[in-house]
Write a structure and sequence with these properties.
alpha/beta, single chain
Length: 333
């Protein structure tokens, strides 16, 4: 009997503890004292060195081999920030706000960019960096709207002339004046960059099909591909408050994983960033993310150029080094 009463008292205490814990839990929920789950990871899932000097120095010292310029083609949906990224790169490397590409502040379902445009990044008064960006009309939902995937493939091969106006209803043909019959290695695209917005709820299936078509064409041509995710400051409160939370944000990581699964680009080739939009002065954290993406573009583009000229690469590299050595030698008179 004594053992029975002892067990009964222990059971009563356990039930009372459970009851009181439940009451306390619901009291906190009702009165708002329960702490919400954290929106950030305790450890960033990707490590990055905050500070732009290393990547900026690399970009400033870069010289392609075998071609005069490294060509980067930007594509993506309307309004995701393709032109704004080009302007942001120019601002980051020049150390001041710069806008070589025209952008529209108005929200629209149709593309502001309608022609094939090459944008150089100025370096000093009369020089330019040895890489360029090609901006094109945006992808749109449905047939007969936006740039056609066939035209993007022709652009990758160097067959689209500067200034060609895209026709959503008809692809560029060999008979058109905008068709480049004999593209040089410098006319060809060396890096294909898909631009996506973190602030977009979802990508429509018809647009995804166009993206897959473009990606498959680039794969067949051997052109390296990567993606950038813009508007990270508008999609997540953690990054809106501090850009350094970019790789700690649970929301952004999930968004990038969804993009990776949808378009087939691995996470290691997707770079989240913020374009300059409202600022009038540059910001080191913004520049860090932009230059990190740009450095990766140059890396994979340079690797592709080496593959284009497998036999000439060593000779050209050696010749360039000799030219640099001779240029640095003092001149005796």
């Amino acid at each position: 009997m004594q053992n029975y009463n002892s067990r009964r008292r222990r059971m009563d205490k356990a039930l009372l503890h459970i009851f009181l814990s439940s009451v306390l839990f619901w009291f906190r929920r009702v009165h708002g004292t329960e702490q919400p789950p954290s929106t950030t990871l305790s450890v960033p899932w990707r490590q990055i060195s905050w500070g732009k000097e290393t990547d900026l120095q690399y970009v400033q010292n870069y010289k392609p081999v075998n071609v005069k310029i490294l060509r980067v083609l930007m594509y993506g949906q309307v309004g995701v920030g393709k032109s704004s990224f080009i302007n942001s790169v120019s601002s980051a490397v020049r150390g001041r706000m710069s806008s070589p590409a025209l952008v529209s502040a108005a929200t629209s379902d149709s593309s502001f960019t309608t022609t094939y445009e090459t944008h150089k990044i100025r370096r000093g008064i009369s020089n330019s960096y040895p890489f360029v960006f090609n901006d094109i009309m945006g992808l749109e939902e449905g047939m007969g709207r936006g740039v056609r995937p066939e035209d993007i493939k022709l652009a990758m091969m160097g067959h689209v002339k500067e200034g060609y106006k895209f026709n959503p209803s008809s692809a560029l043909s060999k008979q058109d004046a905008g068709y480049n019959q004999s593209p040089s290695p410098g006319d060809q695209v060396h890096v294909l960059v898909l631009v996506m917005s973190a602030n977009v709820a979802e990508i429509k299936e018809s647009v995804l099909q166009k993206m897959r078509s473009v990606r498959e064409a680039a794969r067949d041509l051997g052109i390296p591909q990567m993606a950038i995710v813009t508007h990270i400051d508008k999609a997540c409160a953690a990054t809106e408050n501090d850009l350094k939370n970019v790789y700690s944000s649970k929301h952004l990581k999930k968004k990038m994983e969804d993009f990776s699964s949808a378009v087939g680009i691995p996470m290691s080739s997707i770079f989240p960033l913020k374009n300059y939009s409202e600022e009038i002065y540059i910001n080191d954290d913004v520049d860090t993310l932009i230059l990190s993406a740009l450095t990766h573009m140059i890396h994979i583009g340079d690797d592709f150029i080496e593959k284009m000229f497998p036999q000439n690469w060593l000779w050209n590299w050696t010749s360039r080094k000799i030219e640099e050595f001779l240029a640095e030698m003092p001149v005796f008179t």
